[in-house]
Amino acid sequence: MAAVSGRPIDVHTWSTPNGWKIPVMLEECGLPYRVVPVNIGKNEQFAPDFLAISPNNKIPAIVDPDGPGGEPITVFESGAILQYLGRKTGQFYPTDERARVAVDEWLFWQVAGFGPMLGQTHHFKIYAPEKVPYAIERFTAEANRLYGVLERRLEGRDYLAGAYSIADIATVTWAKLNFKQGVDIAALPNVARWLETVLARPAVQRGLAAI
Fold first, then answer.
1. How far is Cα of residue 32 from the mean position of the Cα atoms in its chain?
2. Distance of alpha carbon 114 from the chain centroid
3. Fewer CB within 10 Å, N- or C-terminus of the chain?
4. Cα angle 166, 171, 177; round to 5
């Protein structure tokens, strides 16, 4: 396990599924941190100071004062941050290559598919100023397909990739909003069991409440 300093990590984030991931991970790892709110409802993600940390103008991003070599480092993109914190602490991200590949597969499944597609579902079902039936039907169907993938993966497994990992942390913050996504969680017993287990973790609860 890498040495971990007591100096807090600044977490630039907001109360969204992607934004919750990093406080949850930091709580799980026992790392000190400070939340720096970035109110995306007021377009604060486009401020020049935030752009210097997150070139894509998206939350979350972190500033770790004790990065590699003892020098500060900024990290943007939730998946990259989770991997970085896993390597930094030696927690929730295995060092064995075969085990790490499994975690990476499901982490990238989340950041490339599960999150973006559910985000589009939220947008067109809830937030779009004009209801577009084609878009609602398309993304609701894709949300249900992805939950089907998750249901099959969790058959006979407690977690997505062996032990509890950053893949579960990345996925749970989106899956907990299934009621917004046109998904019948009662028809997905493996997902429901996994969701209940992960959301019951005290560190997860603290991380979700941090923003």
1. 19
2. 10
3. N
4. 145
> In which residue are the tokens 């039936």 written?
133
Kindly give, in sequence order, each residue whose CB lies less than 8 Å from that of residue 137, ignoring residues fewer than 6 positions away: none
d(CA 148, CA 141): 11
pLDDT tens-digit series, residues 39-90: 999 999 999 999 999 999 999 999 999 999 999 999 999 999 999 999 999 9
Strand pairing category for 33-37 and 9-13: parallel
> For the chain, where are the E strands, in sequence order?
9-13, 33-37, 61-64, 73-76
One DSSP character per residue, 90-142 reads T-SS-SSHHHHHHHHHHHHHIIIIIHHHHHHHHIIIII-SS--HHHHHHHHHH
| Whole-structure pTM value | 0.95
Rounded Cα–Cα distance for residues 33 and 129 (Å) = 37
Cα dist from 53 to 14, 94, 111, 112, whole Å? 15, 27, 19, 21
Q: Which residue has the tokens 């070599």?
A: 69
